[in-house]
Amino acid sequence: MMIGTNRPQSIDPAKLDRRDAAWLVDKLVQVVVFIGGISGIIFIIGIFVFVTSEGIGFLTSTFKFTEFFGSIQWRPTSNNPTYGILALIAGTASVTGLAMILAVPFSIGAAIFIAEFASGKVREALKILVELLAAIPSVVWGFIGLSIMNPLIIETFGVPIGLNVLNSGVILGLMAAPIMTTIAEDALKAVPDTYREAAEAMGATRWQVVFRVVLPAAKNGLVAAILLGVGRGFGETMAVLMASGHSINLPTSVFDSVRALTATIAAELGETAVGSEHYQVLFTLGILLFLVTFVINLTADLIVKGVRKK
Amino acid sequence: MDRQPSPAIDTQDLNLWYGTFQALFDVNLKIKSGLITSLIGPSGCGKTTFLRCINRINERLGYVRTTGSIEVLGHDIYAPEVELIQVRKLVGMVFQRPNPLPLSIRENILFGFRTHNAGKKITKSDEDQIVEDALKRVLLWDTVSSRLHHSATHLSLEEQQKLCIARLLPVKPAVLLMDEPCSALDPRATEAVEELIWELRGDFTILIVTHNMAQARRASDECIFMLLGKVIEHGLTEDVFISPEHKETADYIEGRYG
Asked: Which of A37, A125, A185, B38 could form a disulfide linkage to B216, CB 3.0–4.6 angstroms apart?
C-alpha cells in the first residue's frame, strides 16, 4: 500500500472513453422505458385505426346521418334493417345523467370531508375504502343491480320491472363516485395551505374556508373530476347491460327500461358475421364512443393543466 | 403610582408545547398600546410561536398545548367562552410570505369584513368605500384602483403584502401581528412596507417578528429579545441596542450567534 504517496484517483483517465457495464445497463433501461412510454400512444392509435377500419365500410356506404342519429328504429336483424341510435344515445345519456346527479354531490362531499375535515386514521381508512370501492369489478355491480336493486325497486315503487334508468343510474353512480372522489380530493389537496391559514387568521370558520376559498381555488380540478366521472359512466358496459333492462326505448321516467350504446355492442357483436353490415354498424358505435370519451378525457386533462399554469 | 396605560397585550406565565417539545417558557410580557414592538432572537427561539399564540392561529396544528394566559385589551383570549372569530377580529395577522387569497383584489379586502358582518345587509357603495379606504391607508389605491376585479395573486410581492395588511383594516383590529413581513421582499419593497408599518403606528398595536437587526432598530419603539423559548430582555429599542442589560442580548446584537 502506498497510502499518502499518491493522490487517490477516483477514475483512471485511460478508462474515460471506455463503455462499461453501467453504461450498458443505463442505455438498456433508457430503451425499455422509452418503449413503455410510447406504447401507450401506439396502442391508442392502433385501437382507433382498428375500430375505424372495421366501421368505415358502413360509414361510406349506407350511412345516413339523419336516420342514424334521428331515428329510434334499431332493427339490425330485420329483413329491411334500419340503424337508428337515438334511443341508444338517450339510454346512455339518461343513465349517465342520473348517475351524475346522484354521484356528484356525494363525491364532492366525500372529497371535502376527506381532504378538509377528517384527520389521521379516519382519513387513511376512508381513502383505502374509496379505492377499494373503485376496484369492485363492474360485473359485480351489475349483479347487485340484478339481484338486489331489481326486487327492491319493484317492491318500493310498485313498478312491474326494476331493471330501468333508476337501477342502472344508481349502480353507475356508485361506480363513478370513487374515481370522482379520489380526483376531487387531489384537487382540494393541491390548494396551498397558506390560503386556509390566511382565511382562518381573518376569522373564517372551517366551513367558510372551504366554501369561500378552497372550493373556488380548486374549481377546475373539481370540474375535471366530474368530467372523468362522466367519461367513466359513458363507457361503462357490463353493469349497465345488466341493470338497465336493455330494451330500446326513449325513456320518459326513471322507471323506463333503456338500452345503452355500450351494452348494444356487448350484446350484439358476438352474434354478427364478421364484416357484415350489422358488424360494421356496431364498430361505428365504437368510433362514436371512442370519440366522445376521448373528448371528455382531453377536456378534463386540459382543465387540470389550466390549473397548474396559474 | 405612575399613570401607566394598560398594556394592549398582557401575557402571564405563558408556556407552550408542540407535542412534548416545549417552545415557550413562562413568557410574561406587557406590550404597550399603540406602539411598534419588535421581537428578535435566533431561529427557533420561539418568537414566531409567541406571535402565533396571540390570535390563536397556532391551534390549527392540533398538537399544541398552552398554559398561562394572554389578555388582549383586558380580555383573556384563552378563556373557554371566547370565540375564535372574536379573537381574530381583535388581532389581525400578516404572514411571512404574502398570502392574498386567490380572489380579486376587492374580494380580498372584503373577505374579513364579510366574515365579521355575516347576515348584515351591506350596500355595494358601502363596500366600495371600505375597499377604497383600506387601499388608501396602505398607499395602494393609486396603483390598483383601476383593476380591483383582477386576481390579487398577480400583484407584485410588495403590493401583495400591502394588500394583506389592507385586508385586515376594515374589521378594525386593535393588534396587528406581523411575522417577518418583509423577508420575502427586495430592499426597495422592504422600505415601502416598513414605511407603511410606521404609518400605521398609533392606530394599532403592532408586534413584528424580524430577523433583520437593522429593521428592528429603525422601525420599532420597543424591542423584545428571546432565546430558547424565554424572554431575555424587553425595553425601549434604543436601550436594548445601545446598552443591553444581558450578555446574551449583547452577543446576539453584535452577531456572535443567531
From this structure: B38
Residue B133 included in any domain: no
pLDDT tens over chain B, length 258 residues: 445 668 889 999 999 999 899 999 999 999 998 899 999 988 888 889 999 999 899 888 888 999 999 999 888 888 888 888 888 989 999 999 999 999 999 999 999 998 888 778 888 888 899 999 999 888 889 888 899 999 888 899 989 999 999 999 999 899 999 999 988 888 888 888 888 899 888 889 999 999 888 888 888 999 999 999 999 999 898 888 888 888 888 888 888 776
Residues pairing with B67 in the sheet = B15
CA distance A185 to A71: 41
Number of domains in chain B: 1
**In terms of DSSP bridges, do strands B230-236 and B36-40 run parallel, antiparallel, or are they unpaired?**
unpaired
Q: For residue A205, which residues of chain B lie inside 8 Å, CB to CB? A: 85
A37-58 pLDDT, tens per residue? 999 999 999 999 999 999 998 8
Would B16 be classed as within a structural domain? yes
The answer to whether A213 faces chain B, any CB pair under 8 Å, is: yes
Yes or no, beta carbons of A203 and B57 under 8 Å apart: no
Residue the block writes with cell 415601502: B192
In chain A, residues with a C-beta closer than 8 Å to the C-beta of B167 are 202
**Which among A194, A205, A216 has CB closest to B99?**
A194
β-strand partners of B224: B39, B234
CATH number at residue B60: 3.40.50.300
Fold of A88-274+299-309: MetI-like fold (1.10.3720)
Residue B175 lies in a domain: yes
Query: Taking a C-beta distance cutoff of 8 angstroms, is the pair A166, A119 a contact?
Result: no
User: Can you give the residue ranges of every domain in chain A?
Assistant: 88-274+299-309
Cα torsion A223, A224, A228, A234: sign = positive
CB-based contact A203 B116, cutoff 8 Å? yes
Instruction: Indicate the helix (H) or strand (E) that contains A82.
Output: strand A82-83
Q: Is residue B35 part of a domain?
A: yes
A198-228 burial code (b ≥16 CB/10 A, e <16): bbbbbbbeeebbbebbbbebbebbbbbbbbb
**Would you give the DSSP letter of residue A76?**
T
Q: What is the ipTM of this complex?
A: 0.87
Residue of B57, B115, B165 to mutate for A, most A C-beta atoms under 10 A: B115
Owning domain of residue B88: 9-100+171-253
> A240: which 3 cell numbers?
349497465
- With residues binned 3-state (H G I as helix, E B as strand, rest as coil), the percentages for chain A, rounded to 5, are 75, 0, 25
